[in-house]
Amino acid sequence: MRNWFRKEFGKRVGKGVGTSATPSIRRLGPQGGKACASIHAQSFPHPWSTEEFESLLAARDVIAHAAMRPASLRHWAGGPVGFVLSRQAADEAEILTLAVAPGARRRGIGAALLANHLPALAAAGVRCLFLEVEADNKAAIKLYQSFGFRQVGERKAYYRAADGGRATALVLRRDLA
Fold first, then answer.
1. Quick check: is 132 catalytic?
2. Which of 74, 71, 73, 29 has the alpha carbon at shortest distance from 54?
3. How many domains, in total, are found in the chain?
4. Is the pLDDT of residue 176 over 90?
5. What is the pLDDT of residue 23?
6. How open is the CA angle 110-112-114, to the nearest 5 degrees?
7. CATH number at residue 9
8. % of the chain beyond a pLDDT of 90
9. Which end of the chain is more exposed for a tag (fewer CB within 10 A), N or C?
10. Which tens digit of pLDDT belongs to each residue from 91-125?
């Protein structure tokens, strides 16, 4: 899988990938629901519950990966420091969520997750991948663009904001085949 990624993206991966800071990326099952819910709660104003994650992670159409604590994060108590979940429908998929724990951000973990997740989706027969991202989330948009995602739409008032207002979502697409 990594060879496909390196050929496709070359040096576009963020700092930390390919160094001692590189996390171990593993497939994620229902047992990861609690850890995902914890990271999600630290990352989004309206987090999903442990039960919601366990249900998603048990679904046959969901492909999920977790980034396990890299050696450079010795202070971390072990377990996942980030994750990505996608739902597949025929030859299309949608990234439902991607989150990295606050103490592990800006270390290339999001890029490492995508670097492993995209080839796994392609191997599962996904030809076209979509996601929504909050229009104000510049770091996430930059990450997705570095992986070849392009904006194909916009959804006004799609997200509930932390302040009770509504936020716009950008719809991004990436062809895998």
1. yes
2. 29
3. 1
4. yes
5. 78
6. 70
7. 3.40.630.30
8. 75
9. C
10. 999 999 999 999 899 989 999 999 999 999 999 99
Q: How far is CA 131 from the centre of its chain?
A: 10
* Residue 134 annotated in active site: no
Q: How far apart are CA 134 and CA 132, in angstroms?
A: 7
- Catalytic choice (8, 54, 134, 144): 144
Q: Does residue 16 surpass a pLDDT of 50?
A: no
Catalytic residue among 54, 92, 132, 158: 132
Per-residue 3-state assignment (H helix, E strand, C coil) for 130-148: EEEEECCCHHHHHHHHHCC
Least confident of 2-6, 34-38, 126-130, 133-137: 2-6
Domain assignment of residue 11, yes or no: yes
C-alpha closest to that of 91 among 53, 125, 120, 64: 125
Domain containing residue 81: 2-127
Position 149 in a domain:
no
